[in-house]
Design a protein that fits this description.
- GO terms for molecular function: ATP binding.
- Residues 323-552 form the ABC transporter domain.
- It is a multi-pass membrane protein.
- This is ATP-binding cassette transporter.
- Its main location: membrane.
- With 560 residues, the chain is of the alpha/beta class.
- It has 3 domains: 1-146, Up-down Bundle (ABC transporter transmembrane region fold); 147-259; 322-412 and 451-559, Rossmann fold.
- Helices cover 66% and strands 12% of the residues.
- The protein is built from 15 helices and 12 strands.
- The chain has helices at 2-10, 12-40, 44-93, 96-102, 104-145, 147-194, 196-200, 203-257, 262-305, 366-373, 396-400, 424-434, 455-469, 485-501, 536-559; strands at 322-334, 339-351, 355-360, 381-386, 389-390, 403-406, 443-444, 447-448, 473-477, 505-509, 521-526, 529-534.
- Helix 5 runs antiparallel to helix 6.
- The chain is elongated, with a radius of gyration of 35 Å.
């Protein structure tokens, strides 16, 4: 796995040192057993020598074990932080369309559960290395006592390993499947909060969601996890069974074929009994390796599913004369309508310093077109040009820096990230006063004191952030929808003209027909197509004529 190899390369020498100290500690434990067995039949004079050797080996085993565990703990946390930032940067550099498609549930699982599993792997590595070394050392000592019995032990180990591998591989299969199911569970757990209003207002919906949808998936995860861990237990039991089978055959069969002295047999019995705990510890740690393998696979797949946008470092544009959408199209699948929605082909030109209203019914494609304009969606056909130059993949990120946007589903950060302006706090405070938010929010060192505001107030705060960005192109998606009449009037009659007066291009997605005449021009969408365009005054005249015609029809019907 490339990610695992990357981690190994990042900490190669510390990992080698940690593994080496684990192995030394394990071999030291095996040497202690050999010394104990030798001391059982030693003379009084030799016991002093063996005692000093026992003390030195014991101290070495203790120091190397502590050092190994400390290093692996450090490596585990370092690997978690490295992988977490790798995933975060991957998300930050991925295309917006791919982020929409992937959703947040899988990313959250990768950034939390899967990374914690990697830490558990590093915590288990000292046990794997140490206990493996203990078992190898004990087998070596057994071979020293009798090479014939060692030759018998090797095929027994092979049979035990084959059985363990079979059970373990089935356990990994169920573990992998349960992790995929948990991605869906995370989405549904989030729905408990995001859909809390709807669930509270509809008892049957709440019962169906909790007792059927959620309970069914929770049970499915439980079943698959249980199967996986039962198979792990079966694999561990098989390993223990093969150990006792080996002990029984050695003591009661091989001893009759190849008799050995009481001292050798006592050594065998002691080593056998001591090996039980290292083998069980080794088998218990192996599931952590399997879980980490699944987690690494998921992190790897997550990275592959989020291709990084190509970017070239250039000098960002601070102004433009024209932005042209030349025959651009975009398609996506609408689940509710069970059909593919097509936006375009769209041909539009935006000039510096103009105010444009984008109108149309719900579902006509206004927000999709907005995302196309600001570069969040790539055109599937056609091209986007700035000052006559096409915007390619390498220039896409620079192009997006032209825009300040407040979408209808905007997100507010708790500070003015990325803004390094002199007097930033003072400028923000003045805007808070103009937007009547100074009694709710304070700002210090670029951070807001609170975001616990109504939706309308949060939109005003988002407007403040956009204004401070001071970009050449502003886009507002239904910004006034949650504002009271006073702020609607301020927005359309004061804020938008003020931005235009500063030479900004402003596009406003709106349904507020009473302000249509204030636009320099309007663009009307219907089912992904531009069906109408003109000046704001022309639109006002059409709406007035339509209103008068509607009034005449009503009067006629009333007279009937």
């Amino acid at each position: 796995m490339s990610i695992f190899l990357y981690l190994v390369r990042q900490s190669r020498w510390m990992l080698i040192t940690a593994l080496a100290t684990s192995i030394v500690s394990g071999l030291g434990n095996a040497a202690l057993i050999a010394l104990i067995n030798e001391a059982l039949g030693a003379s009084s004079d030799r016991l002093i020598e063996l005692g000093w050797r026992f003390l030195l080996v014991g101290a070495l085993a203790l120091v190397t074990r502590t050092l190994s565990q400390t290093q692996f703990m450090y490596l585990g946390q370092r690997a978690k932080a490295t992988l977490r930032m790798y995933a975060v940067r991957r998300i930050g550099e991925a295309s917006f369309r791919e982020l929409e498609r992937q959703g947040g549930a899988k990313a959250l699982a990768v950034l939390t559960q899967d990374l914690d599993t990697i830490v558990v792997l590093f915590i288990s590595l000292p046990t794997l290395a140490m206990q493996g070394a203990v078992i190898a050392g004990c087998l070596g000592y057994l071979g020293f006592l009798s090479w014939r019995i060692l030759m018998f032990a090797i095929p027994m180990i092979g049979v035990g390993a084959a059985g363990f591998w079979f059970a373990n591989s089935r356990a990994v299969f169920h573990l992998r499947a349960s992790r995929r199911r948990e991605d869906d569970l995370i989405k549904q757990f989030r729905a408990l909060f995001d859909g809390a209003k709807e669930l509270k207002l509809h008892r049957l919906r709440r019962a169906a969601f909790v007792e059927e949808t959620l309970a069914g998936n929770v049970e499915a995860v439980r079943v698959q996890r249980t199967r996986g861990y039962v198979l792990y237990a079966a694999a561990a039991s098989w390993g223990s069974f093969m150990l006792f089978a080996f002990i029984g055959c050695t003591l009661f069969v091989l001893n009759r074929l190849y008799p050995v002295g009481p001292h050798v047999m006592a050594g065998y019995a002691m080593v056998f009994l001591y090996m039980i705990m290292p083998i069980e510890a080794l088998l218990a740690a192996i599931p952590n390796v399997s879980s980490a393998r699944v987690a690494l696979e998921r992190i790897q797949q997550f990275s592959l599913d989020l291709p990084v946008e190509m970017a070239r470092a250039t000098t960002p544009l601070h102004a433009f004369d024209s932005i042209v959408l030349d025959g651009v199209t975009h398609q996506y699948f609408r689940e509710k309508e069970n059909e593919v929605f097509t936006l375009g082909p769209v041909d539009l030109t935006f000039k510096s310093g103009e105010l444009v209203y984008l109108i149309g019914g719900n579902g006509s494609g206004k927000t999709t077109l907005a995302k196309m304009i600001v570069g969040l969606y790539l055109p599937e056909q056609g091209r986007v040009l700035v000052n006559g130059e096409p915007v390619g993949e390498a220039q896409r990120d620079d192009y997006r820096q032209l825009f300040s946007v407040v979408f209808s589903d905007f997100f507010l950060f708790d500070s003015l990230l990325g803004m390094r302006l002199d007097g930033l706090d003072q400028s923000a405070q003045r805007l808070l006063e103009l937007l009547h938010l100074d009694h709710k929010v304070r700002i210090a060192d670029g951070a807001f004191s609170t975001l616990e505001l109504s939706q309308g107030q949060r939109k005003r705060l988002a407007l403040l952030v956009a204004y401070l960005e001071d970009r050449p192109f502003y886009l507002f998606d239904e910004w006034a929808a949650d504002q009271d009449p006073l702020f609607k009037d301020v927005f359309y009659r004061e804020l938008l003209p003020a931005l235009k007066a500063k030479g900004k291009t402003v596009v406003v997605i709106t349904h507020d027909d009473r302000y249509f005449h204030l636009a320099d021009r309007y663009i009307k969408l219907d089912y992904g197509q531009i069906v109408e365009a003109g000046t704001g005054e022309e639109l006002l005249a059409k709406d007035s004529a339509a209103t008068r015609a509607s009034s005449v029809v009503k009067m006629f019907r009333t007279s009937q």
